[in-house]
Design goal:
Keywords: ATP-binding, Coiled coil, Helicase, Hydrolase, Nucleotide-binding. This is RNA polymerase recycling motor HelD. ATP binds at residues 229-236. There is one protein chain. Helix 11 crosses helix 19. The relative contact order is 0.09. Helices cover 46% and strands 17% of the residues. The chain contains 26 helices and 26 strands. The strands form six sheets. Strands 1, 2, 3, 4, 5, 6 and 7 form a seven-stranded mixed beta sheet that branches. It has a seven-stranded parallel beta sheet with strand order 22-23-21-24-25-20-26. A six-stranded parallel beta sheet has the order 10-9-15-16-8-17. It is an alpha/beta fold. It binds adenosine-5'-triphosphate (ATP). Adenosine-5'-triphosphate (ATP) is lined by residues 190, 193-194, 205, 208-210, 213, 229, 231-237, 564, 599-600, 707, 709, 737.
Length: 766
């Protein structure tokens, strides 16, 4: 029998074991499921509901709680069984992907370690048939070639020799490919994986994790892990496998809801949504900075979003207003500005807080001046948030006093009379329920009238009280506006521009973080203390100020920060440090890792794109052959449209599943889209509100294509007019590096200087 047959026999045996396990579990699962259904059906039968006496209420409460706990526990175990089944079903088709034979130096015993997406024991629960890829011993597979090798366990390092390192492609229980590999994990397998068509959903890479990626995945020392990785080097992939790794490593301590990922746009969220479930793990919370902002500001204020800011900076005329705005954008991103805000917040302890009148039925009941007076008569040594708490209590007591006065007023009586039958009944019943123990007084019409007026007044004061609790009597807009009358590092023009903007009622995007930061200093910080691991992807787009803000929001989180400074596309990151800069981290608190190998694109595309950026020569392409990028230069609109359509047909014939026409801005995208639609080309336009992306041809502005990849990319207009400034270079690089197999650059007019800098040996010219 040859080696392959022997291996196939083993696969068959493991598949049988899996089938057996599935059967066993299904039987058990059936029981649990029925139990859950049964419990739900009889939930109310098994609780005693009696609320006549306080003791009975207690008993009812306890009985309800017990029943709910029982149901919860059964539901959890049902879910556990269900998850197990899902993983086993996945393993039945492909039980493992790797094997290492390892001889421990101490015992001289050799183990054959088979590695798959999850561990699998034999039926006696004695031997591992498959090891989870995250188990300590599995790191041998990712880190070593045959020869001396070692791995770390919680008990210490185990040394030995690796005799065999083998990879398998197993599909539907059949070995389709099998290779013994050297240092890096098989080029064959990677070739196969990377040569495939792009997917509208990212896949897990556990079978082919590279050594330097494995380092990121398993890193477990300093609180900050900062990864600078070139485009397509697997940063996002590594981050997601790292989540799965941490969930496994700390499975008794950490759950998915204690982790969170900040991603660049909502479409990216749907793009990566499958990776963790594919690995048998739950997804973690994902948000974008934009979503966080929306959540915080809600309808309180109008504000600009990051994309609109970028759109303005890319499309507006470069005049004085523009330059002033740019100054603001850049300065408000810095830690110096954060210090300005800190100083200003300190000064507010003595004076300067602005308040709003509290009104009731159109009349002022506590004026802003009264609130201000009250606030500033409180002990100045008490912090602002604590003083505000006192103000809340005082305001609430004022409201209560007012409530009492109002109850006997005429308008209340009128309202009672005007009450609809249903409303009346509702209030009546509510009152009755509350006063059951005292039933005889209920006949008393006077009492009823009293209770009704109380309820009516309460109806009006309830929202006021809620607003007081939420500190909405603070006039945050005015407070923030006054910051620009204090001393800051901004020029007078930039400060005035901000105030003017605020007077129109809208917050610039660059003001959102400082605004929320100041608000937190005044109201007391919002913190997410349950988040233990925070992941920030596309970190180059965050400013030092935003980072300081995030650190305050997540004080107990270890952070994994990943990005590529060559893809920094926001104006605040120009000539400024960003989240990848070492000077933002305290000494010894952060580890910096670099990824230089790029996997996404063919060798030809990488050879081209690496010349677009300074230092690009250090980028190492993964050797996957393809065709050279194509440049199609045209002189007129007609020619441009004609060649666009011709290119689309040509790429379409190659059966690519995803083709992206990438534009610099939303404005350009809209134009391209209109042209294509008028020519009956089936195409979708992606904008900032698009949440998923689909197969076929799409038109998309670069900043929304961040982090995503396509089979073929067609740059809609790579002309010099479109791409000439420093920021354009990053946009251009980001756009070109989205392509996996083919890249075409169309230009209307002279090609961009970034292309002209490159020797024509690296692209075809048409
Ligand atoms: N070890 C690997 N095995 C298989 N595929 C990989 C590996 N590493 C990366 N890839 C693939 O390379 C592509 C790029 O990976 P990913 O999107 O994680 O890179 P990135 O560094 O986040 O890219 P960018 O910064 O350009 O958005 C993906 O298709 C991913 O599946």
């Amino acid at each position: 029998m040859d080696e392959r047959q022997r291996e196939q026999e083993r696969v068959d045996k493991v598949v049988q074991e899996i089938e057996q396990k599935v059967e066993d579990i299904q039987e058990k699962a059936g029981d649990v499921k029925e139990e859950v259904i049964g419990l739900r059906e009889t939930f109310w039968e098994d609780v005693t509901v009696n609320i006549d006496e306080p003791d009975d209420i207690m008993e009812t409460y306890n009985s309800l709680r017990q029943q709910a706990e029982l149901l919860g526990e059964r539901e959890r175990s049902h879910k556990h069984v269900y998850d197990q089944l899902k993983t086993l079903k996945r393993m039945k088709s492909s039980p493992y992907f790797g094997r290492v034979d390892f001889t421990e130096a101490r015992s001289q015993e050799t183990d054959q370690v088979y590695i798959g997406i999850s561990s699998l024991m034999d039926r006696q629960d004695e031997n591992f048939l498959v090891y989870d890829w995250r188990a300590p011993i599995s790191s041998l597979y990712y880190d070593y070639s045959p020869g001396p090798a070692e791995y770390d366990t919680p008990e210490g390092t185990i040394e030995g020799t690796m005799d065999v390192k083998r990879q398998y492609i197993i599909r539907q229980g059949e070995i389709k490919g099998m290779f013994d590999t050297g240092v890096t994990i098989g080029d064959e397998l990677l070739q196969e994986v990377l040569g495939n068509q792009a997917n509208t959903q990212m896949k897990s890479i556990v079978a082919t994790i590279q050594k330097e990626q494995n380092q990121i995945i398993r890193y477990d020392q300093r609180p900050f892990l900062v990864v600078q990785g070139v485009a397509g080097s697997g940063k996002t992939s590594a981050a997601l496998q790292r989540v799965a790794y941490l969930l496994y490593r700390y499975r008794t301590k950490i759950t998915a809801d204690q982790m969170m990922l900040f991603s660049p746009n909502p479409m990216f969220n749907s793009y990566v949504a499958n990776v963790l479930p594919e690995l048998g793990e739950e997804n973690i919370a994902q948000t974008t900075f934009q979503e966080y902002m929306e959540d915080r500001l809600q309808t309180r204020l109008q504000y600009e979003d990051a994309y609109d800011q970028l759109e303005y900076l890319l499309t507006a005329e470069r005049n004085e207003t523009y330059e002033t705005r740019l100054e603001g954008v850049q300065y408000k991103a810095t830690l110096q500005f954060k210090e300005d805000v800190d100083h200003y917040a300190d000064s507010l302890a003595k004076k300067g807080l602005a308040f709003k009148n509290i009104k009731f039925r159109g009349e002022i009941i506590v004026s802003k001046e009264e609130i201000e007076n009250h606030f500033y008569t409180l002990d100045p040594f008490i912090s602002i948030p604590n003083r505000l708490e006192e103000v809340v209590n005082w305001l609430l007591s004022e409201i209560e006093a007012m409530e009492k006065r109002e109850r006997s007023k005429e308008w209340v009586e009128e309202e009672i009379e005007l009450l609809g039958k249903e409303e009346y009944l509702k209030i009546h019943q509510k009152l009755q329920a509350g006063y059951r123990g005292n039933a005889e007084t209920f006949d008393d019409a006077v009492l009823e009238q009293k209770l009704l007026s109380k309820a009516i007044v309460k109806k009006y004061t309830k929202p006021i009280k809620r607003k007081i609790h939420d500190l909405q009597f603070l006039n945050m807009k005015t407070i923030y506006k006054s910051l620009f009358q204090s001393r800051t590092g901004l020029s007078k023009e930039a400060a005035n521009q901000t105030t003017d903007q605020l007077e129109h009622g809208t917050l610039f995007y660059e003001d959102v973080t400082p605004f929320l930061y100041l608000e937190d200093l005044i109201k007391g910080t919002h913190i997410y203390n349950h988040i233990r691991y925070l992941f920030i992807d596309e970190a180059q787009d965050y400013s030092p100020f935003q980072f300081a803000f995030l650190k305050k929001l997540f004080p107990y989180s270890r952070m994994t920060v990943l990005g590529d400074y060559n893809q920094a596309i926001y104006a605040h990151t120009l000539h400024a440090p960003n989240l990848l800069s070492e000077d933002l981290y305290e000494a010894n608190r952060a580890e910096y890792l670099t990824l230089l190998r790029s996997y996404r694109s063919t060798r030809q595309i990488i050879e081209f794109t690496k010349q677009l950026i300074p230092g690009g020569e250090s980028i190492q392409p993964f050797n996957r052959e393809g065709v050279m990028p194509l440049l199609v230069s045209t002189a007129t609109q007609e020619e441009h449209q004609h060649s666009l359509i011709k290119e689309l047909y040509r790429l379409g014939e190659k059966k690519y599943e995803t083709i992206a026409i990438i534009c610099k801005t939303a404005e350009e995208s809209q134009k391209a889209y209109d042209v294509l639609v008028s020519k009956d080309i089936p195409v979708r336009l992606m904008d900032k509100d698009t949440y998923t992306f689909t197969k076929g041809i799409i038109v998309i502005p670069v900043y929304l294509a961040k982090g995503i990849e396509f089979d073929a990319v067609l740059l809609h207009d790579a002309s010099d007019e479109n791409y000439q400034f420093q920021l354009d270079r990053h946009l251009f690089y980001t756009a070109c590096t989205r392509a996996m197999h083919e890249l075409s650059l169309l230009t209307l007019g002279e090609p961009s200087r970034f292309i002209r800098e490159i020797s024509t040996d690296y692209y075809k010219y048409k």
